[in-house]
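Researcher: Next sequence.
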Amino acid sequence: MSSGVILLDEHLLIVGLNPAAENILGISQRRAYGQPLLQLVDDEPEMRDILARVVATGNHYANEMRLAPSEAHSAERIVDCRVSPSAIDKACLLIEMTDVTRRSQISRENALLIQHGAGRQMIRQLAHEIKNPLGGIRGAAQLLERQLPSAELREYTDVVISETDRLAALVDTLLGPGGPPNKQPVNVHEMLEYVVRLISAEEQRSISIRRDYDPGLPSIDLDRDQMVQAFLNLVRNAVAALDGQGTLTLRSRAATNFTLGDTRHRVIASIEIEDDGPGIPKDMQDSVFYPLVTSRPEGTGLGLPAAQELLSRHGGLIEFESRPGRTVFFVRIPLDQTVRRSDD
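Model: Next structure:
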């Protein structure tokens, strides 16, 4: 059976489990026998609640819940859990557990791709609306500058012209180049260190930066300028969330047999940007990749959708997990850049 089956006695102690349950719990049947199930799942509140309900009512209950990382499993997992009354030997409860982490992740990736498609259209429409009047504003400022008698007054028109040029450059970035990315072999770790140097020059307050790099990660054919901008947006967001105190962690890993959208890749690079700040508000987590969505008064709400757009040009995807004290953005990049998405 692919589903884990666990038998509990009236004290919620394990009196039996199958091999699939051993894998899910990360413990052998011999070691698990007589141990409290709640202790093995880090006293998960939903598990505690569902067990209490079945004991109290004798009804069947089912729920999807998250299991915290453990010694056997380094990452959080999502399991579909069903609990029923039982009369098998000493058991009074029967629990069926199915690990649905990857299934949930694929559903989330598809939702992010749909969100990105809608966000990309909004960005391009917005960029066109902004770009149209910029040329007129710049031209009018240049004409006005010629009529001004003093250098002091011309400083104001210089500001108008420079800010107009900055907006035009931002709009060009949002609209993106017509051709494919200019891909060259890039060392991802060197690129991350370059981004850190840029951020360090901007951020004067003290933030601890941890590196956890996979030294075996090979160079990847990427457009370096586009990737630097994408990572710069993500790291800036993490630094802003820390508000001058906390830890920023940069992590790299290789993942095998990984599906992005409808394409299965033999191996991808997973780059993680983690901060221990307050987390993304729950009511914003479903919309952070839409343009103009931000929780910061000074934010533009364009950094994340622009980063997602730049990753999409490389067949990649940005995902995230967030709760108070831990927010992680996962940048997934196929190592084989000859695999292209159908809309590239």
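Model: The longest strand covers residues 247-260. Residues 339-344 have pLDDT under 50 and may be disordered.
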